[in-house]
Design goal:
By secondary structure, the protein is mostly beta strands. It has 2 helices and 8 strands, in the order αβββαβββββ.
């Protein structure tokens, strides 16, 4: 019985020490839902710690459910897919948040635009947490956005699971 209680306490201590961002060498993987006007889909991202408060990463999204245009046309694969490189400022410790939490504003450069995002992660255990993120385009590559060009080129909201790797 003592061994079971001791083992349980050790596991509990491991869960209490979860951290959202550890600094240089930290690696995160997120999988979640991409929600935007005209469609919703799946989003995958990874971030790599560069320093105490900096990280870079990659994001890709694919819209699974998309509305047809006014003429009844369906979007092609290229209209649904987006990929970006990104830079984050991980501010959880600067804002003196609980170590399980991280707030990260950042910039991203994608196939469709140059944009900004603001995200939040909360880790329940050392390896598992949740995230939410909102993004906007700052500069679109084409000023005459029409039809399916607006997909992945507008305000987007993401929510899902985050993992420490």
């Amino acid at each position: 019985m003592k061994k079971i209680i001791t083992l349980s306490l050790l596991l509990l201590v491991g869960f209490v020490n979860a951290q959202a961002y550890k600094g240089k060498g930290d690696t995160k993987f997120d999988v979640g839902a991409n929600i935007q006007n005209g469609g919703s889909g799946i989003r995958l991202s990874t971030d790599f710690g560069l320093g105490e408060n900096m990280s870079y990463g990659f994001v890709t999204s694919y819209l699974l459910s998309v509305s047809n245009d006014d003429l009844g046309n369906k979007p092609k694969f290229g209209d649904r897919f987006d990929a970006k490189v990104r830079f984050n400022a991980n501010l959880g410790n600067v804002l003196k948040l609980d170590p399980k939490m991280d707030v990260y504003p950042g910039l991203d450069l994608g196939l469709r635009n140059f944009g900004a995002h603001l995200g939040f992660r909360y880790f329940f255990t050392e390896g598992f947490g949740i995230f939410t993120e909102a993004g906007i385009p700052i500069a679109k590559y084409d000023n005459t956005i029409t039809g399916f060009d607006n997909l992945n080129n507008q305000f987007v909201f993401n929510i899902g699971a985050s993992f420490n790797l």
